[in-house]
Automatic annotation (TrEMBL):
Entries under Gene3D superfamilies matching the protein: Endonuclease/exonuclease/phosphatase
Keywords attached to this entry: Endonuclease, Hydrolase, Nuclease
Domain of life: Bacteria
Pfam families: Exo_endo_phos
Gene Ontology molecular function terms on file: endonuclease activity
InterPro entries (UniProt xref): Endo/exonu/phosph_ase_sf, Endo/exonuclease/phosphatase
Protein name: Endonuclease/exonuclease/phosphatase family protein
Domain called Endonuclease/exonuclease/phosphatase: residue spans: 2-280
Amino acid sequence: MIAAAQADILLLQGIDSDAGGATAGALAGVLAERGLAYPHHLSLPVNSGVPTGHDIDGDGISTGPRDAHGYGWFTGQGGMMLLSRFPVEAVRDFSSFLWADLPDSSAALVTPDEALDVLRLHSVAAWDVAVLVNGRPFHILASHASTPVFDGPEDRNGLRNADELRFWSLYLDGWSPNGAAFSSPDFALMGTLNVDPERGEGQRETLRNLLAHRALQDPRPTRADGGTATADWTDPVPGDLRVDYILPSANLAVGAARVLWPDGTEPDDLGEAVETPSDHRLVFVDIDF
């Protein structure tokens, strides 16, 4: 699947993170054997599976997977990894940012009081990665937001997902969780945002506001059949939804935008290859930079 995409910069989601970066190195090695050189890779600690020490979900225990900063049975489960043909110049890691510290946060509505000073906003991770493309910095704003389901009528996961998306809107508006405000002209917001703008669960208006942000453009990648869904989920509920995004900055020239979801008519049938690793599909956008 990765060989078919031939991406210059690849953001992988749902891949376990380890302290020494062994997974990233091993994967890069396997891809090199297939003729895909990704000499630069980034695999930072993530929030999934990291204990908070508090009973977040109210089930009477504080050691379950839903009591972690992000859902996970072990530290690093379902993390995030960046592979690049271009060198990584700098990284801003926002993964430790507290949910309660986000302006107008919903954290206090759905979080035990004793956990407000501990619980992080991002259930997996959030990075601003500057990659040097022919000597010019290009920023990858990488994110994996909470799944806005698996909660109760309080909509805890939905509210958290919305705040994770608002984090990026605020960041693009000049607010910064730490350090200098973001001012780079060339970038792309990439990741699993876990909300479809039209269907399914989640605070869809928050996603629509992000998609319509003046600093971004939405190339609306399409499948072979013309659809925009990126995840193959059980029909009819939740059904196939668009939850994975690449949103380049508005100033960039964008070419092809595809979801790697073959319909069986391609010369080399990729159907089994794309179905095996995940129920999500690879999304790619060609950017003239």
